[in-house]
Amino acid sequence: MGLVLKETRAAVEAYLAALNAHDADAVAACVAEDFVNEHTSSTGQSRRGRAAYRTALTGFLENFVDLHYAPERLLVDGESAAVPYVMTFRMRSAGDRPVRIRGVFVFTVAGGLIARRTDYWDSGEVQRQLA
What we know:
By secondary structure, the chain is of the alpha+beta class. It starts with a helix and ends with a helix. The chain is built from 4 helices and 7 strands. The mean pLDDT is 94.
Protein backbone atom coordinates (compact mmCIF):
# COMPACT_ATOMS: atom_id res chain seq x y z
CA MET A 1 0.00 0.00 0.00
CA GLY A 2 1.38 3.40 -0.95
CA LEU A 3 2.27 6.04 1.60
CA VAL A 4 -0.60 8.34 0.55
CA LEU A 5 -3.12 5.50 0.88
CA LYS A 6 -1.78 4.61 4.34
CA GLU A 7 -1.92 8.25 5.43
CA THR A 8 -5.48 8.65 4.17
CA ARG A 9 -6.63 5.42 5.84
CA ALA A 10 -4.93 6.35 9.12
CA ALA A 11 -6.47 9.85 9.17
CA VAL A 12 -9.99 8.51 8.55
CA GLU A 13 -9.62 5.72 11.11
CA ALA A 14 -8.35 8.18 13.76
CA TYR A 15 -11.24 10.55 13.05
CA LEU A 16 -13.87 7.81 13.34
CA ALA A 17 -12.28 6.46 16.52
CA ALA A 18 -12.35 9.94 18.10
CA LEU A 19 -16.03 10.38 17.16
CA ASN A 20 -16.88 6.99 18.62
CA ALA A 21 -14.97 7.88 21.80
CA HIS A 22 -17.07 11.09 22.06
CA ASP A 23 -13.86 13.10 22.43
CA ALA A 24 -14.53 16.50 20.84
CA ASP A 25 -10.94 17.69 21.25
CA ALA A 26 -9.57 14.53 19.60
CA VAL A 27 -12.09 14.86 16.75
CA ALA A 28 -11.08 18.49 16.16
CA ALA A 29 -7.39 17.49 16.25
CA CYS A 30 -8.05 15.18 13.28
CA VAL A 31 -9.22 17.97 10.98
CA ALA A 32 -7.36 20.71 9.12
CA GLU A 33 -7.53 24.36 10.21
CA ASP A 34 -9.63 25.16 7.11
CA PHE A 35 -11.75 22.00 7.41
CA VAL A 36 -15.04 21.90 5.48
CA ASN A 37 -17.84 19.83 7.01
CA GLU A 38 -20.65 19.55 4.44
CA HIS A 39 -24.01 17.94 5.16
CA THR A 40 -26.26 17.06 2.25
CA SER A 41 -29.38 16.40 4.34
CA SER A 42 -31.92 19.15 4.86
CA THR A 43 -31.50 19.15 8.65
CA GLY A 44 -27.71 18.89 8.72
CA GLN A 45 -25.67 22.02 9.27
CA SER A 46 -22.45 22.52 7.32
CA ARG A 47 -19.49 24.27 8.91
CA ARG A 48 -16.16 25.74 7.80
CA GLY A 49 -13.02 25.85 9.88
CA ARG A 50 -11.71 23.72 12.73
CA ALA A 51 -12.74 26.27 15.38
CA ALA A 52 -16.39 26.44 14.25
CA TYR A 53 -16.52 22.66 13.94
CA ARG A 54 -15.03 22.15 17.42
CA THR A 55 -17.55 24.56 18.93
CA ALA A 56 -20.44 22.63 17.38
CA LEU A 57 -19.11 19.24 18.46
CA THR A 58 -19.90 19.77 22.14
CA GLY A 59 -23.63 20.22 21.60
CA PHE A 60 -23.72 17.50 18.94
CA LEU A 61 -22.10 14.92 21.20
CA GLU A 62 -24.31 15.92 24.14
CA ASN A 63 -27.50 15.51 22.08
CA PHE A 64 -26.44 12.33 20.24
CA VAL A 65 -26.04 10.09 23.30
CA ASP A 66 -24.11 6.83 22.77
CA LEU A 67 -23.20 7.95 19.25
CA HIS A 68 -21.53 5.18 17.29
CA TYR A 69 -20.45 4.99 13.66
CA ALA A 70 -20.01 1.42 12.43
CA PRO A 71 -18.15 1.56 9.11
CA GLU A 72 -19.37 -1.01 6.59
CA ARG A 73 -16.14 -0.58 4.63
CA LEU A 74 -13.37 1.93 4.04
CA LEU A 75 -12.60 2.66 0.41
CA VAL A 76 -9.41 4.64 -0.19
CA ASP A 77 -8.28 6.25 -3.44
CA GLY A 78 -5.25 8.47 -2.98
CA GLU A 79 -6.24 11.37 -0.73
CA SER A 80 -9.95 10.49 -0.93
CA ALA A 81 -11.91 7.96 1.08
CA ALA A 82 -15.52 6.82 1.23
CA VAL A 83 -17.04 5.18 4.28
CA PRO A 84 -20.54 3.75 4.15
CA TYR A 85 -21.67 3.55 7.77
CA VAL A 86 -24.45 2.70 10.18
CA MET A 87 -24.88 5.41 12.80
CA THR A 88 -26.70 4.69 16.05
CA PHE A 89 -27.49 7.05 18.90
CA ARG A 90 -30.14 8.14 21.37
CA MET A 91 -31.49 11.62 20.72
CA ARG A 92 -31.43 13.44 24.06
CA SER A 93 -33.62 16.28 22.73
CA ALA A 94 -36.27 13.69 21.76
CA GLY A 95 -36.49 11.90 25.11
CA ASP A 96 -33.46 9.64 24.50
CA ARG A 97 -35.22 7.86 21.65
CA PRO A 98 -32.97 5.48 19.72
CA VAL A 99 -32.09 6.10 16.08
CA ARG A 100 -30.32 3.92 13.54
CA ILE A 101 -29.51 5.29 10.09
CA ARG A 102 -27.21 4.50 7.21
CA GLY A 103 -25.08 7.07 5.45
CA VAL A 104 -21.84 7.66 3.64
CA PHE A 105 -18.92 9.89 4.51
CA VAL A 106 -16.66 11.09 1.70
CA PHE A 107 -13.36 12.44 2.97
CA THR A 108 -10.48 14.38 1.50
CA VAL A 109 -7.23 14.12 3.45
CA ALA A 110 -4.28 16.49 3.14
CA GLY A 111 -1.15 16.46 5.25
CA GLY A 112 -2.49 13.68 7.44
CA LEU A 113 -5.61 15.64 8.44
CA ILE A 114 -9.21 15.56 7.25
CA ALA A 115 -9.57 18.58 4.95
CA ARG A 116 -13.16 17.92 3.90
CA ARG A 117 -15.98 15.67 5.03
CA THR A 118 -19.17 15.38 3.03
CA ASP A 119 -21.89 13.47 4.86
CA TYR A 120 -24.74 11.85 2.91
CA TRP A 121 -27.65 10.73 5.09
CA ASP A 122 -31.44 10.87 5.09
CA SER A 123 -32.73 13.31 7.71
CA GLY A 124 -36.27 12.19 6.85
CA GLU A 125 -35.40 8.74 8.18
CA VAL A 126 -34.26 10.26 11.47
CA GLN A 127 -37.54 12.20 11.70
CA ARG A 128 -39.56 9.03 10.96
CA GLN A 129 -37.80 7.15 13.76
CA LEU A 130 -38.37 9.99 16.22
CA ALA A 131 -42.06 10.50 15.31
